[in-house]
């Protein structure tokens, strides 16, 4: 087994405080002046490619995120604009937080048969595990809106109903 | 008595039984679709293939009679391969319906796919389309695409209900199950075809889309629809009560009892569970002086009732009290009523039978005319005084305080008598005509909400178990009666129905036989 | 199959107290009678061939409706030999009680408090057996199977 | 003087109470009270299906959630006797080590912040963000990833992951160098850490302490070496050990462990096996809604050969990657979406795995599976009764024994030393209280 | 007129300090942000102007003024209210003797840019600074809170021990400049050594400078010397303060930073002196000189003073955001066993050199 | 900035101006008390640190004394054992004060619906803004913070 001894003690140079402190100051000062320089350059429209610091100026500038990121839910639509969901309750079943409420109803088209009369997601419970998306056999629920803004002043505002979830999807083009 | 060997285990079976049944006795499950113990053998699904030594081909175990010296294998590679292929064949035209199919979760296609299938699909053609979601009767919806043509339903209609509504039409891969011309599936046992359908081809209209079956919990119970006492399971869902408006009991399913109902039950009983969650009395009520019923609390109502009973007993003796128990109550409750009112108070006449109740529909199979589950039990307990006489006494003022359980006295005559009665206490589950004229209302629990036993018309004592908690503020009748008795000063300390049962019957519920016991005329 | 030395030695030394021996997934498991817990643990710790110097984990399982109802489960580790051992002690209702291992491993202290907190199993000889994860006002033992997960208890007032 | 440190104290992360008895500034007696974040993890696991346990296991050690996620998965796999694909094991190693990095970064950063070195904290969190970006690109979430599955992982690595990963590791190394420069030789820091919070190897073992805390005392026990799991035995890495068992040793051990983690990740990236891809060259890539509609209306002609343009959040779990990341069994794993949309067999399989009471059902039995968590040995003891819900899940939390020892470690030190000592424990309340 | 000049000087210095304090709070945020690769506060706007977040301190001030004032139940009402005023008052009053410019003749008057030309100026500063401790001690004591008490005890002991070091360090400076008057001290630093090195304290007393700067920073109670506050340990002596009283403590911290910077500037960095700038212009060696008007010189010199103070402030911020905090006993050890002997050594060396020179 | 004419007519010009100014000051000077307990703390750190930098909104100064804090950030699961502490901290805060429920555990209890946790801190303290997410990404937090600022600006200011 490879074992590495990492123990060390301070050298005399380090023991006298001041040199190490200056070294540390040099490091932070380097950050300070580099960023200061870049910011000033930006004021004059220069060095646009360099970033002064790493901050993303949300809300004006958003951090790019991976397409896999699970964001706010949406329900997809059929070509007639109705929800693709058939109220099979897979997502409701698999949801560890029990944040999805579905009530099914009889659809006029016997090929489809079933549709959600009610479909609520309580974001106040949702843990964004993405299980609902994985469990959906109809590609009806997705978490790819890229929307991360869903704070609310009240608990009721956290419950998103069928219409709200649908409104985040567009009707797919005719094929 | 042939003796045969299945998967290396030997067993002796009765003459005439088939290999599948023999395997079942050894707890070896052989997949099957068309075979049903209560129906004739069709041998059409070919899932129950087994390998029998010295037979050239695989044999369908439901059709082969067990014979002496047979060596059967249900798990050999050949068998597995055959079942897999059979399943693949059955699924060729099966639609992608699991998301909308009510059967998924209890579907044998799904089960056997995971057990014996587990292959990747190879099907590269279009599926054949057939009719979907066709209502073929008041309770049943047919989906021809999902059907695997096992013909259990047609055999049921031919052999059990003998009404011949269903049949197989067309040939080859066009063959479908359909209604016979000019018929609808409306026999009184039509619900059973839903139970026996191994796939989602026949589904229940009432249950459709109400709840996914994997949310359901089950509890063993006894149907209280008539005095047959069919064994049933209550399928209920309490975790997702926001669905279907708080409906807890989702459906009833028959449970095998070879002595009573075998595998079947009637539609009347199957769909007669609505009262459990509907029109219930949810809290105790008291009638204000010359006024309407008002919601009250248990403490207050019981106080008033016990004071009333006590003062009547003191001033007028037991003759001042009338009790009308109900054949809807369990043996334990009736026993407790007898104990409190007859034995402790000395009330002489306790009636149960509603004299205005007419005999209902009756047939020679399951349905009985007496729509009460425990008339026989009440009789055996000796609570069979004349109700009409009690009511008359109440109307004439001889009986000051009248304690009615559960009964709905709708007839004008009874209404009139009740109107003249002094003080009426009602203990029951649902709002009805009697409640309207009562002074104190104690909400009791339905049979799904309590433990107990019923005695059916032939004297078979059968146990039912609690599935649900009493709705809202209602309480089990035993609890109400015990509390009342304690308030009256009688030492009644039963905690649950089982204690009463032990006192009455002398045995625990566990010791009661699985399919119930006949009374054999012993009186207790 | 080297690890089975442990099993062999335990069987030799405590034959009468061993209820069951098993190795599911190559994990040695011994079920012993509660009375033999301390001697077996001491033996495991001190035997020069075994050297189970670690009490890695101590927990309990509630096999509701089975008798005896509880099982206290110990996981030992011998760093020197890379052995692991699971030791199980059945504990019966109504007063579940086991000997404490705090005298051998001070680390057992908190584990035992946790088991007491969650299952209500008493450890005789424990220096300070009180609740650890829950507050003293809590009634019942939540990891018992008959404690419903959602049964809440009244909020306690500010006490800090 | 009695002084209550916590639970609402800046250094105790809000969930610990240390009741101290002070003599001037010297701690005479310290009594540690835990349980402020008890969330009934074990009870929840008994109520949830095996799949539903994963989100709960994420939140055990929320600083390195991937490790506990994979630990739980591996335990259930042992119970079910599943073999996961090679590539999946490599992915697990890579992500576990990234998780270990994030954990140590947070730990050292936070304890430095509590010592007043605020910039160090921000630098380290900055590095952590880059690693979070990596984790996000694989798992679809930064922290609570729900990525492990019984029999594999949720999705394959995205394209270009290797390059991004190497770049992020390079930047992380730079940050580590900066932090090293800021702290290691700084005498103020050294004085505060050296000789403080000392524990001997003997005591550490007696308390059952593992992980960096143990290794700082000179014991070299590491689950990855002693009981190699996944594919850890294929990589070369050192187990860093200290000598004094004090805060400074722990700091050094953690710093070195990060270097070793980077080393492991780089080796794993070098030798990452490709694994099989199942692509049928005849098929075309079509939209998911079209595919699912074709399936629903029975127009399945040739549909099997097509691939689906899978929605972004499920990327990496398509049919072509499926065998790379999932154990080849239908009992534990959701079939790929293409199959679910296009044929009844996979659809039924899909349903059987998700439906309550059907799902994943390990045979009755019990198993204890240890992994090297960021704080030490993280063990899952699972008892199965054959249903789709575990009968009992026990998580052996690595910081529990450390916290048990904390009281005695603190005694005799200064009041101000509570902060760095507590910081060096890297107490994660989620796994401590569960 | 005397009074007017005196008043306007006081007014000027007061506003200067307050302005400095304001800018410093802003600077602290922005500088730390840049050091940490961030942006820092920049959202507060007035009529759409954001000015790099300059309005954030204003918002802080308004908010603190209107926040509920709280006096802890078991505490002493009077002392609790008094404490922040004491602390702030003594920090402010020290500026009276700091010369922020030379002596100029303006409109016939000879104006010394120093509010109070005290011949024991340095002692005055020390006196006020030690008085300032009372503010912190009172705050901690009157809060009836263990943490606050710990904080104030720490504050007292830390201040006392570092004041001694400071005092001892100063002696070296005093021996060189032979005065206690700060203005004279600065004037003395206007000379040059060997014609090209300004005769600033830092060059004459390098060790003294380091020791004094350290001690002065310790007096400001900021990281790495923020033991009385020790945010993550004991939160601080002001734990029970809210609203503007707490704001005053915050402000006092910044004022003390400015004070420390001003003192260091005055004692070691030549105060308002600009190298080679005499009262009538730049004078370089030999023939090279640039004539400047008196007002320009004043402007340059005052700016030089402010610049030096600002640079020192920036430096102190740099230190504050770089280093970890000392432990209480390490700080004491540093103060008593390292810095005090060193400062005495410094006196000795200075004395020896002075003896040798003369 | 929208001007509420109705409001200004009713309350008078000065008060409305005053209100506006105070609202402005309060929203850009948020001294927060981070009551950090659990997982969400990690994202809270991220929000505070370089990549997101909550200080841009003037909320960068955490005060660990509730007396000095304006906004109580309740970050992470609150258990029944911890609830009294939270209540006490809230009561110790000086007016005006706001409470942010950070993460689903504080909003509603999240999926920790069990014997040990409080299902939503609004049962014990009033909540001004709910930021769901488990844990919320920093973007969500910042948006929540901006909503809170809006609320601070528009509400009736009390002195």
List the helices and strands and how they pair.
The complex is a heterohexamer of chains A (175), B (524), C (160), D (434), E (358) and F (159).
Chain A: E1 3-5, H1 12-15, H2 18-43, E2 74-75, H3 90-94, E3 100-106, E4 114-122, H4 131-135, E5 141-142, E6 159-160, H5 162-166
Antiparallel strand pairs in A: 2-5, 3-4, 4-6
Chain E: H1 2-35, H2 56-65, H3 77-93, E1 103-106, E2 109-112, H4 121-142, H5 146-177, H6 182-188, E3 192-193, E4 197-198, H7 201-204, H8 206-219, H9 243-268, E5 277-278, E6 281-283, E7 289-291, H10 294-320, H11 328-357
Antiparallel strand pairs in E: 1-2, 3-4, 5-6, 6-7
Helix pairs in contact in E: 1-9, 1-10, 2-9, 3-4, 3-9, 4-5, 5-8, 5-11, 8-9, 8-11, 9-10
Chain F: H1 5-11, H2 13-28, E1 31-36, H3 40-48, E2 61-62, E3 71-75, H4 83-92, E4 98-102, H5 104-107, E5 129-131, H6 138-154
Parallel strand pairs in F: 1-2, 1-3, 3-4, 4-5
Helix pairs in contact in F: 1-2, 2-6, 3-6
The helix-strand sequence of chain F is HHEHEEHEHEH
* Secondary-structure content class of chain C: alpha/beta
Task: Report the CATH topology name of chain F.
Answer: Rossmann fold
Terminal residue distance of chain C: 54 Å
Radius of gyration of chain C: 17 Å
Mass-distribution shape of chain C: globular
The proportion of strand residues of chain C reads 25-35%
Distance between the termini of chain F: 22 Å
CATH class categorisation of chain F: Alpha Beta
| Average pLDDT of chain F | 83
Summed up, the helix count of chain C is 3
Q: Per the principal axes of the C-alpha atoms, what is the gross shape of chain F?
A: globular
Quote the beta fraction of chain F.
5-15%
Number of domains of chain F: 1
What spatial order of strands do you see in the largest sheet of chain F? 2-1-3-4-5
How much helix is in the residues of chain C?
10-25%
Biggest sheet features of chain C: 5 strands, mixed
Which structural class should the secondary elements of chain F be placed in? alpha/beta
Plain-language structure description:
In chain B, the strands form six sheets. Chain B has a seven-stranded mixed β-sheet with strand order 15-14-20-19-18-16-17, sandwiched between helices. Chain B is an alpha+beta fold and 524 residues long. Helix content of chain B is 25%, strand content 17%. The model of chain B has no long low-confidence stretch (mean pLDDT 87). Chain B has helices spanning 19-25, 77-90, 108-117, 152-159, 192-196, 267-270, 298-316, 331-345, 375-380, 387-396, 412-420, 433-436, 477-488, 497-505, and strands at residues 3-6, 9-12, 49-52, 59-60, 71-73, 134-135, 140-142, 166-169, 176-179, 202-204, 217-222, 231-236, 249-254, 285-287, 293-295, 321-324, 350-351, 401-405, 423-428, 440-443, 452-455, 460-464, 517-518. Chain B has three domains: 3-92, Ubiquitin-like (UB roll), CATH 3.10.20; 97-108 and 122-209, Alpha-Beta Plaits (2-Layer Sandwich); 285-518, Rossmann fold (3-Layer(aba) Sandwich), CATH 3.40.50. In chain B, α8 packs across α14 (497-505) and α10 (387-396) crosses α11 (412-420). Chain C has 160 residues and is of the alpha/beta class. In chain C, 21% of the residues lie in helices and 27% in strands. Chain C contains three helices and seven strands; from the N terminus they run αββαββββαβ. In chain C, β6 (97-99), α3 and β7 form a beta-alpha-beta unit. The longest helix of chain C is centred in the C-terminal third of the chain and has 12 residues, at 108-119. In chain D, the strands form four sheets. In chain D, strands 1-2-3 form a three-stranded antiparallel β-sheet. A three-stranded antiparallel β-sheet of chain D has the order 9-10-11. Chain D has a two-stranded antiparallel sheet with strand order 4-5. In chain D, β4 (148-149) and β5 form a beta hairpin. In chain D, α4 (86-114) runs antiparallel to α5 (118-139), α4 (86-114) runs antiparallel to α17 and α16 (399-410) runs antiparallel to α17 (418-425). Chain D is elongated. Chain D starts with a strand and ends with a helix. Chain E is mainly alpha-helical. Helix content of chain E is 62%, strand content 6%. Chain E has helices spanning 2-35, 56-65, 77-93, 121-142, 146-177, 182-188, 201-204, 206-219, 243-268, 294-320, 328-357; strands at 103-106, 109-112, 192-193, 197-198, 277-278, 281-283, 289-291. Chain E starts with a helix and ends with a helix. Chains in contact: A-B, A-D, A-E, A-F, B-D, C-D, C-F, D-E, D-F, E-F.
């Amino acid at each position: 087994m490879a074992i590495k001894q990492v123990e060390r003690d301070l050298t005399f140079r380090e023991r006298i405080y001041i040199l190490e402190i200056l070294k540390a100051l040099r490091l932070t000062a380097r950050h300070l002046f580099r960023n200061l320089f870049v910011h000033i350059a930006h004021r004059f429209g220069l060095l646009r490619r360099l970033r002064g610091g790493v901050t993303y100026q949300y809300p004006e500038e958003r951090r790019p995120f991976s397409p896999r990121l699970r964001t706010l839910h949406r329900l997809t639509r059929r070509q007639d604009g109705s929800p693709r969901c058939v109220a099979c309750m897979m997502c409701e079943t698999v949801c560890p937080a029990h944040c999805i409420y579905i009530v099914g109803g009889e659809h006029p088209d016997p090929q489809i048969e079933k549709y959600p009369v009610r479909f609520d997601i309580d974001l106040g419970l949702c843990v964004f595990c993405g299980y609902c998306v994985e469990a959906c056999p109809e590609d009806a629920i997705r978490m790819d809106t890229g929307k991360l803004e869903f704070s609310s002043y009240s608990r009721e505002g956290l419950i998103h109903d069928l219409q709200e979830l649908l409104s985040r999807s567009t009707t797919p083009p005719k094929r | 008595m042939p003796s045969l060997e299945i998967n290396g285990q030997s067993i002796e079976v009765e003459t005439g039984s088939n290999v599948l049944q023999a395997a079942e006795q050894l707890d070896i499950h052989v997949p099957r679709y068309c075979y049903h113990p209560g129906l004739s053998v069709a041998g059409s699904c070919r899932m129950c293939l087994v390998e029998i030594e010295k037979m050239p081909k695989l044999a369908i175990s439901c059709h082969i009679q067990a014979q002496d010296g047979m060596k059967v294998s249900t798990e050999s590679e050949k068998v597995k391969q055959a079942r897999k292929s059979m399943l693949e064949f059955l699924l060729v035209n099966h639609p992608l319906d699991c998301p909308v199919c009510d059967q998924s979760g209890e579907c044998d296609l799904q089960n056997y796919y995971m057990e014996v299938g587990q292959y990747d699909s190879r099907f590269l053609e279009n599926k054949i389309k057939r009719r979907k979601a066709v209502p073929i009767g008041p309770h049943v919806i047919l989906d021809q695409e999902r059907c695997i043509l096992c013909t259990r339903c047609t055999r049921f209609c031919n052999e059990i209900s003998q009404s011949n509504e269903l049949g197989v039409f067309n040939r080859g891969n066009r063959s479908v199950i359909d209604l016979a011309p000019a018929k609808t599936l409306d026999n009184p046992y039509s619900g059973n075809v839903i139970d026996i359908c191994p796939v989602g081809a026949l589904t229940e209209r009432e249950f459709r889309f109400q709840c996914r079956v994997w949310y359901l919990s089950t509890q063993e119970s006894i149907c209280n629809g008539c005095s047959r006492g069919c064994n049933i399971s209550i399928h209920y869902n309490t975790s997702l009560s926001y669905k279907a408006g708080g409906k807890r009991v989702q459906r009833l399913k028959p449970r095998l009892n070879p002595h009573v109902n075998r595998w079947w039950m009637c539609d009347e009983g199957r769909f007669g569970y609505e009262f459990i969650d509907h029109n219930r009395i949810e809290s105790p009520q008291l009638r204000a002086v010359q006024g309407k019923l008002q919601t009250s609390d248990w403490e207050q109502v019981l106080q008033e009732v016990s004071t009333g009973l006590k003062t009547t007993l003191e001033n007028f003796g037991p003759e001042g009290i009338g009790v009308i128990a109900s054949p809807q109550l369990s043996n334990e409750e009736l026993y407790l009523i007898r104990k409190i009112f007859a034995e402790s108070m000395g009330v002489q006449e306790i009636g149960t039978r509603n004299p205005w109740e007419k005999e209902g529909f009756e047939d020679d199979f399951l349905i009985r005319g007496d729509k009460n589950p425990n008339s026989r039990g009440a009789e055996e307990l000796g609570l069979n005084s004349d109700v009409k006489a009690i009511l008359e006494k109440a109307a004439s003022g001889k009986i000051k305080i009248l304690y009615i359980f559960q009964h709905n006295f709708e007839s004008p005559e009874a209404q009139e008598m009740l109107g003249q009665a002094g003080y009426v206490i009602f203990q029951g589950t649902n709002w009805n005509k009697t409640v309207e004229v009562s002074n104190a209302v104690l909400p009791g629990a339905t049979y799904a909400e309590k433990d107990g036993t019923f005695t059916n018309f032939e004297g078979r004592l059968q146990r039912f178990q609690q599935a649900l908690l009493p709705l809202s503020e209602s309480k089990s009748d035993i609890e109400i009666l015990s509390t009342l008795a304690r308030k009256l000063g009688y030492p009644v300390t039963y905690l649950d129905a089982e204690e009463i049962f032990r006192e009455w019957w002398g045995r625990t519920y566990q010791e009661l036989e699985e399919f119930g016991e006949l009374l054999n005329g012993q009186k207790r | 199959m080297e690890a089975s030395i442990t099993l062999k030695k335990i069987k030799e030394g405590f034959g009468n107290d061993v209820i069951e021996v098993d190795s599911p997934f190559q994990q040695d498991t011994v079920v012993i009678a509660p009375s033999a817990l301390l001697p077996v643990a001491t033996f495991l710790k001190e035997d020069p061939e075994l050297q189970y110097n670690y009490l890695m984990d101590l927990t309990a399982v509630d096999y509701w409706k089975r008798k005896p109802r509880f099982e206290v489960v110990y996981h030992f580790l011998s760093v020197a030999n890379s052995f692991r051992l699971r030791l199980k002690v059945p504990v019966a209702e109504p007063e579940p009680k086991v000997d404490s291992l705090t005298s051998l491993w001070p680390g057992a202290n908190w584990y035992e408090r946790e088991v007491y907190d969650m299952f209500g199993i008493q450890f005789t000889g424990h220096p300070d057996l009180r609740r650890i994860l829950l507050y003293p006002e809590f009634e019942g033992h939540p990891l018992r199977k008959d404690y419903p997960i959602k049964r809440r208890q009244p909020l306690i007032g500010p006490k800090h | 003087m009695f002084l209550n440190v916590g639970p609402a104290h800046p250094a105790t992360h809000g969930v610990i109470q240390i009741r101290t008895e002070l003599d001037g500034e010297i701690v005479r007696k310290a009594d540690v009270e835990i349980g402020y974040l008890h969330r009934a993890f074990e009870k929840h696991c008994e109520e949830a299906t095996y799949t539903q346990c994963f989100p709960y296991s994420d939140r055990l050690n929320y600083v390195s959630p991937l490790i506990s996620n994979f630990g739980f998965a591996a335990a259930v796999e042992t119970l079910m006797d599943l073999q996961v694909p090679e590539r999946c094991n490599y992915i697990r190693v890579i992500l576990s080590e990234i998780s270990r990095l994030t954990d140590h970064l947070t730990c050292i950063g936070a304890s430095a912040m509590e010592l007043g070195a605020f910039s160090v904290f921000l630098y380290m969190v900055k590095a952590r963000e880059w690693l979070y970006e990596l984790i996000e690109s694989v798992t679809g979430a930064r922290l609570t990833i729900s990525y492990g599955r019984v029999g594999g992982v949720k999705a394959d690595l995205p394209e270009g992951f290797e390059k991004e990963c190497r770049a992020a590791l390079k930047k992380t190394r730079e940050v580590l160098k900066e932090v090293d420069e800021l702290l290691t030789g700084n005498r103020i820091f050294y004085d505060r850490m050296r000789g403080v919070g000392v524990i001997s190897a003997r005591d550490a073992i007696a308390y059952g302490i593992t992980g960096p805390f143990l290794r700082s005392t000179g014991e070299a026990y590491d689950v990855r070496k002693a009981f190699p799991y996944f594919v850890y035995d294929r990589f070369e890495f050192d187990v860093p050990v200290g000598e004094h068992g004090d805060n400074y040793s722990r700091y050094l051990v953690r710093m070195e462990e990060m270097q070793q983690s980077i080393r492991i990740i780089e080796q794993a990236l070098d030798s990452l096996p490709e694994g099989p891809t199942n692509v049928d060259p005849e098929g075309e890539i079509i939209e998911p809604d079209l595919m699912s509609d074709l399936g629903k209306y029975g127009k399945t002609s040739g549909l099997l050969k097509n691939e689906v343009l899978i929605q972004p959040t499920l990327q990496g779990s398509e049919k072509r990657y499926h065998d790379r990341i999932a154990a080849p069994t239908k009992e534990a794993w959701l079939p790929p979406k293409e199959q679910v949309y296009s044929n009844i067999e996979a659809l039924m399989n899909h349903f059987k795995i998700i439906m309550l009471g059907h799902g994943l059902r390990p045979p009755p039995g019990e198993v204890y599976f240890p992994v090297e968590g960021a704080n030490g040995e993280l063990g899952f003891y699972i008892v199965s009764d054959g249903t789709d819900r575990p009968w009992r899940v026990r998580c052996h939390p690595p910081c529990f024994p450390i916290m048990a020892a904390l009281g005695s470690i603190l005694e005799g030190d200064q009041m101000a030393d509570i902060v760095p000592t507590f910081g060096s424990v890297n107490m994660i309340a989620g796994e401590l209280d569960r | 007129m005397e009074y007017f000049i005196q008043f306007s000087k006081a007014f000027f210095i007061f506003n200067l300090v307050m302005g400095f304090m304001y800018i410093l709070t802003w600077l602290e945020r922005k500088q730390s942000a840049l050091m940490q690769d961030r942006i820092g506060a920049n959202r507060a706007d007035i009529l759409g102007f954001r000015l790099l977040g300059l309005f954030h301190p204003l918002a802080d001030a308004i908010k603190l003024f209107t926040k509920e004032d709280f006096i802890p139940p078991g505490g002493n009402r009077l002392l609790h209210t008094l404490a922040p005023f004491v602390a702030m008052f003594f920090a402010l009053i020290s500026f009276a003797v700091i010369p922020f410019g030379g002596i100029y003749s303006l409109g016939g008057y000879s104006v010394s840019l120093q509010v109070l030309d005290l011949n024991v100026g340095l002692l005055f500063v020390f006196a006020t600074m030690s008085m300032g401790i009372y503010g912190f001690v009172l705050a901690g004591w009157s809060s009836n809170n263990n943490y606050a008490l710990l904080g104030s005890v720490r504050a007292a002991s830390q201040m006392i021990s570092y004041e001694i070091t400071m005092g001892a360090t100063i002696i070296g400076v005093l021996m060189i400049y032979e005065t206690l008057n700060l203005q004279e001290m600065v004037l003395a630093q206007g000379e040059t050594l060997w014609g090209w090195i300004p005769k600033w304290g830092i060059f004459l007393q390098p060790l003294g400078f380091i020791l004094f700067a350290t001690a002065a920073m310790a007096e400001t109670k900021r990281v790495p010397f923020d033991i009385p506050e020790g945010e993550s340990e004991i939160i601080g002596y002001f734990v029970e303060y809210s609203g503007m009283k707490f704001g005053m403590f915050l402000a006092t911290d910044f004022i003390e930073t400015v004070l420390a910077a001003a003192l260091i500037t005055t004692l070691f960095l030549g105060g308002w002196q600009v190298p080679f700038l005499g009262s009538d212009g730049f004078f370089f060696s030999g023939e090279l000189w640039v004539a400047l008007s008196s007002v320009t010189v004043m402007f340059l010199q005052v700016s030089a003073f402010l610049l030096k103070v600002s640079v020192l402030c920036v430096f102190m911020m740099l230190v504050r955001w770089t280093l970890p905090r000392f432990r209480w006993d390490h700080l004491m050890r540093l103060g008593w066993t390292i810095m005090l002997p060193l400062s005495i050594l410094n006196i000795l060396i200075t004395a020896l050199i002075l003896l040798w020179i003369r | 900035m929208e001007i509420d004419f109705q409001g200004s007519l009713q309350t008078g010009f000065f008060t409305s101006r005053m209100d506006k100014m105070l609202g402005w000051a309060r929203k850009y000077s948020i001294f927060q008390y981070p009551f950090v307990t659990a997982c969400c703390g990690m994202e809270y750190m991220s929000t505070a640190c370089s990549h997101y930098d909550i200080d841009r909104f003037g909320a960068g100064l955490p005060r660990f004394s509730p007396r000095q804090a304006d906004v109580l950030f309740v970050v992470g699961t609150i258990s029944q054992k911890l609830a009294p502490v939270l209540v006490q901290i809230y009561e110790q805060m000086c007016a005006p004060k706001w409470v942010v429920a950070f993460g689903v555990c504080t909003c509603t209890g999240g999926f920790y619906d069990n014997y040990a946790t409080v299902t939503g801190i609004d049962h014990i303290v009033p909540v001004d803004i709910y930021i769901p997410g488990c844990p919320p990404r920093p973007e969500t937090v910042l948006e929540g913070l901006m909503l809170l600022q809006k609320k601070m600006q528009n509400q009736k200011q009390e002195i």
